[in-house]
Design goal:
Helix content is 27%, strand content 26%. It has helices at 11-32, 41-54, 121-140, 147-160, and strands at residues 58-59, 71-75, 78-80, 94-103, 106-115, 164-165, 171-173, 180-184, 201-204, 207-209, 215-217, 224-226, 232-234, 237-242, 245-248. A five-stranded antiparallel beta sheet has the order 8-7-9-14-15, sandwiched between helices. The longest helix has 22 residues, at 11-32. The protein starts with 10 loop residues before the first helix and ends in an 8-residue tail after the last strand. The structure holds magnesium ion (2 copies).
Length: 256
């Protein structure tokens, strides 16, 4: 089996995936209570790591490819893969928190972009549209559709609102490994790409920029930011395709 092989999951395996993803949702919920002006992303990281370990799981990101922390914290113009640091959050910031767990051998992966205090209306609109785009993409994740149906739906919706879609980073299959085949871009053409089937588990994660689509990879080896330094939003769910349609395994229900 090579890395391009899409690994279908049994119903039993999907329930393990649901448990890992529910814990990610609970972790994001816990963090939502702490996200306010003055808190540092390193403090959030410590809260997340402790919370995940207290629930008998492993923070998947810690050490993944050498990543130094348990969550990715990407503030304002940072798109994804931000490294937690000692800089306090400020009123008006937005912060994408991306979190992964491994529980009883299966992975959860979900991300949410939070507002820090009061945020400008135009930035709130970017968050709203990105989140809506995620759910529109999820609706396309049905048996006999193709991966391109997900990406094209996300892309056309976000572009219709005047935003742009990051090309360099994409969603992915997920299971025992955090990143499995197939890649799930947030752009593309309808009716193209791998066929979607029952038993597939994928993470759909639109990364949407207020300005241009170009990004820069920072010298820290991880952080990806917008080239024009305008804000970027990121929302992610892990889903399974079951009984012909998407079953959302992660959850935002704990977020306050
Ligand atoms: Mg993620
Ligand atoms: Mg992901």
């Amino acid at each position: 089996m090579n890395s391009k092989t899409i690994i279908l999951k049994t119903d039993e395996e999907i329930e393990f995936m649901r448990a890992a993803n529910r814990l990610v949702g609970m972790t994001l919920g816990e963090l939502s209570q702490h996200i306010k002006p003055g808190v540092t992303t390193l403090q959030l990281d410590q809260i997340a790591e402790e919370f995940i370990r207290d629930h008998g799981a492993i923070p998947t990101f810690l050490g993944y490819g050498g990543f130094p922390n348990s969550i990715c914290t990407s503030v304002n113009e940072n798109v994804v893969h931000g490294i937690p640091n000692n800089k306090p959050l400020r009123e008006g910031d937005i912060i994408s928190v991306d979190c992964g767990t491994q529980l009883r051998g299966f992975c959860g992966d979900s991300a949410y972009t939070f507002c820090v205090g009061e945020v400008a209306e135009e930035v709130k609109a970017l968050l709203r549209v990105t989140r809506e785009a995620l759910y529109k993409g999820i609706e396309q994740a049905a048996e006999d559709k193709r991966v391109g149906d997900i990406g094209s739906t996300i892309q056309s919706y976000c572009e219709s609102k005047g935003y742009s879609v990051v090309r360099e980073l994409v969603g992915h299959g997920i299971g025992r490994q955090m990143h499995e085949a197939p890649e799930v871009p947030n752009y593309g053409r309808p009716g193209t790409g791998p066929l979607l089937k029952n038993g597939m588990c994928i993470a759909i994660e639109p990364m949407i920029n207020m300005g241009g689509k170009k990004v820069v990879f920072e010298n820290d080896g991880w952080t990806v930011r917008t080239k024009d330094r305008k804000p970027s939003a990121h929302f992610e769910h892990t889903i399974a395709i079951r009984n012909g349609k998407a079953d959302i395994l992660s959850t935002f229900e704990f977020i306050q």
